[in-house]
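Posting here for the record, re: dinuclear copper ion.
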Amino acid sequence: MARIRRPGLLVPAAALALSGCGSPQDTLDPHSPQSGDIAALWWWMLAVAGAVFLGALAMLGLAWLRRSRRGLPFFGESERATTGLVVAFGMVIPATVLVALFGVADLYLIKRTSAPAAGSSAMTVDVVGHQWFWEVRYPGTRAVTANEIHIPARTPVRVVATTADVIHSFWVPELNRKVDTIPGQRNSVLLYADEPGTYRGQCAEFCGLQHAHMGLAVVAQPRARFRAWLERQARPAAPPSAARARRGRRVFMANACSDCHTIRGTPAQGKVGPDLTHVAGRSTLAALTIPNAPRELAAWIRDPQAVKPGNRMPGLRLSPRQVGELVAYLEHLR
Ligand code: CUA
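Prediction output follows.
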């Protein structure tokens, strides 16, 4: 490891990294009332913890000043004053501060950031964690997508989070708190965006080799555009007209692709990997790891393990020509 020559630079650099300043996943840059409350709580906790820390330093200073019984400053030699000091700063103040923070964080904020009750009129989106992608379903429609969750802006959405394998944690820092996906459990959280935009999220529970590359995006749209998007996603895939794409379709159906992926409206009904019915409409591949462009898509099909080591997609040893035809087919799935 290179020697760090200027440790003085480390502190501001670390502070910047911790604050997430300028990153698209900034808990202190809220875009919903829920994350606004969480950010406010964070600042309050920082202020209170800062005051407690300064108080502790003052007590330490006092103890140092009073290290001998002779010539004591402040309370002289009064035992009662000393006892009062210990009770106030050692018990009453810490207990009050901790109980108050617990009350705000757990009793008030958990409720404020929770999903609308099941059965309410709020729209529901089912999110299923997989090693390593997010499956997204819209109950009541046939729409299934992956990693890019579209929602209407300024509308409360109930996210029901489950898992197909291990524990993951669904987290979109600028919109709300985390919610874990736990085997055998259905957890829920509210998703709400103040305005249209794209908000990046991340799996926040270590779930294996590609945990760090288990990203997601929430795309909040004006309601009419969201409706149009959902209607398009619910349709089956249109058959390709171009000859190259038609050949690509045959490659897809004849190889293991169709055992793991579903393309609605075709015989491909695999359930291992993401639904690809409208894959060309997404802006990224492999849970936001690479852009969804022909070159990256070809590289991904040729050697998925090079892009995302450990993932469950095998390299199928296809010829360059077959890869090209597959890309042409997948690019047509809008
Ligand atoms: Cu999924 Cu970490």
